[in-house]
């Protein structure tokens, strides 16, 4: 068994920002590594995911949210993949096993056995376990029930969820897939690399006008990662009986105003009624959905039917910068820090 270090470096919140978080609002601190107790394993983190919901936690969280707010001095958290370097007993993960857990943003994590998930070889690349395609898969198969020939609109299509959602919709039989993004460069990549048929660009012209041109016959399914103007445009473009699934609220989380905990939008109730639009919140990602997703994702990856777009940032010292850049929309796909 390898000798454990006495300390570990981790990213802590130093001050609560007024607006979007920047590197100066964090500190990379060296802290003692606690000795593992019975029922715990020590994991040397290899990768962790930088995700938009951290903006909400840093700003004070939202009432009813599954994760508590972050206070100055707290270590950030999030999905991570690492190698077990210390384990007690034979019943749980063993030294050398690759596992995933939720104590990212640190070099080493002491994690209860019940909170680590052995990765096995279901996916060809361990980093792919940090992708958010499982959310998109569950939303499209269970909540929206994508049908062959459907026209599907995905907002935030160049982000962690959207960059996989469009590909999944196509594999499920969608007839047309349209995404929204923030720049012409990203729009071109959505079409050339991820199989989107068309892309609308935030700020180029009203989203409603762009969507009407891309989908003149309307949309059947809307996977919403953003809210705001894009949700309004989807209502205007919806066909009778359209199914909407609300997965994220990037319009609030990426706004320089506020705390990232609200994403207000005004919708025309008459249109919702007349078009019989169903709007459902994402219903979560349980073990059954996770197992089904990993099996299909692994098969699609090995067959070359899907790609996992991600940006790799090297080193924990650059993790705060990675969060800033992700919230400013500079990256394409999932943002990963490699340790």
Question: Could you spell the SSE succession in H and E letters?
Answer: EEEHEEEEHEHEHEHEHEHHEHEHE
Fraction of residues in helix: 25-40%
Shape: globular
The percentage of residues in β strands lies in 25-35%
Strands, total number: 15
Structural class label: alpha/beta
Compute the CA-based radius of gyration.
Answer: 20 Å
Uncertain segments of ≥5 residues (pLDDT<50)?
Answer: none
Describe the overall structure.
There is one protein chain. The chain is α/β, with parallel strands linked by helices and 339 residues long. It is built from 10 helices and 15 strands. The strands form 3 sheets. Strands 3, 4, 5, 6, 7, 14 and 15 form a 7-stranded mixed beta sheet that branches. Strands 10-9-8-11-12-13 form a 6-stranded parallel beta sheet, with helices on both faces. Helix 5 (207-214) packs across helix 6 (228-237). The chain is globular. The relative contact order is 0.16.
Name some characteristics of this structure.
339 residues, alpha/beta, 7-stranded mixed beta sheet, 6-stranded parallel beta sheet, 10 helices, 15 strands
What's the structural blueprint in terms of helices and strands?
Layout: E1 7-13, E2 26-32, E3 40-50, H1 53-59, E4 80-87, E5 98-101, E6 108-112, E7 117-118, H2 133-143, E8 151-154, H3 162-171, E9 176-181, H4 184-194, E10 198-201, H5 207-214, E11 219-224, H6 228-237, E12 238-246, H7 250-253, H8 269-274, E13 278-281, H9 287-303, E14 310-314, H10 319-327, E15 334-338
Parallel strand pairs: 8-9, 8-11, 9-10, 11-12, 12-13, 14-15
Antiparallel strand pairs: 1-2, 3-4, 3-6, 3-15, 4-5, 5-7
Helix pairs in contact: 2-3, 2-9, 5-6
């Amino acid at each position: 068994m390898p000798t454990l270090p006495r300390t570990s470096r981790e990213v802590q919140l130093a001050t609560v920002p007024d607006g979007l978080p920047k590197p100066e609002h964090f500190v990379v601190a060296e802290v003692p590594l606690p000795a593992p107790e019975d029922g715990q394993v020590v994991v040397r983190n290899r990768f962790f995911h930088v995700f938009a919901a951290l903006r909400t936690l840093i700003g004070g969280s939202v009432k009813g949210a599954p994760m508590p707010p972050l206070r100055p001095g707290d270590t950030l958290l999030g999905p991570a993949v690492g190698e077990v370097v210390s384990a007690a007993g034979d019943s749980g993960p063993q030294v050398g096993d690759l596992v995933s857990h939720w104590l990212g943003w640190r070099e080493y994590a002491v994690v209860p056995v019940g909170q680590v998930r052995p990765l096995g070889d279901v996916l060809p690349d361990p980093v792919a376990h940090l992708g958010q395609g499982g959310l998109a898969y569950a939303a499209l198969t269970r909540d929206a029930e994508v049908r062959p020939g459907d026209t599907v609109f995905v907002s935030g299509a160049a982000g962690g969820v959207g960059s996989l959602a469009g590909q999944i919709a196509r594999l499920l039989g969608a007839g047309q897939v349209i995404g929204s993004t923030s720049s012409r460069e990203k729009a071109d990549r959505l079409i050339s690399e991820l199989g989107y048929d068309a892309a609308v660009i935030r700020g180029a012209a009203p989203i409603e006008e762009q969507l009407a041109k891309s989908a003149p016959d309307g949309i059947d399914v809307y996977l919403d990662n953003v809210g705001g103007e894009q949700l309004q445009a989807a209502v205007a473009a919806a066909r009778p009986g359209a199914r909407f699934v609300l997965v994220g609220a990037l319009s609030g989380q990426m706004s320089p105003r506020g705390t990232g905990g609200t994403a207000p939008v005004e919708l025309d109730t008459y249109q919702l009624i007349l078009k019989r639009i169903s709007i459902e919140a994402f219903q979560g990602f349980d073990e059954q959905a996770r197992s089904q997703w990993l099996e299909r994702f692994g098969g699609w990856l090995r067959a070359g039917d899907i790609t996992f777009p991600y940006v790799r940032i090297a080193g924990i010292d650059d993790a705060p910068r990675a969060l800033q850049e992700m919230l400013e929309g500079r990256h394409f796909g999932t943002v990963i820090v490699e340790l």
